[in-house]
Amino acid sequence: MLPVVVVHGGAGHIPKERAELSTIGVKEAARTGYAILQKGGSAMDAVVEAVALMENNPGFNAGIHNTHTSHLND
Hints:
The protein is mostly helical. The chain contains 2 helices and no strands. The protein has a domain at about 15-60. It is elongated and about 35 Å long.
């Protein structure tokens, strides 16, 4: 059975200025996670790396780019 990686980049309206960056980020996260699984890595390793990529991508409202808690990151 082949591994499967599903990445969700958020819900709701994505502004046009973030749409391309978000699409690229989701694809990069999914491909990276899949590559880890294909090389024998664990599901945990694949998920951690995929999430880290998305958290570090300004196209997503997550991680260091989270606007809801940005004051906590200063």
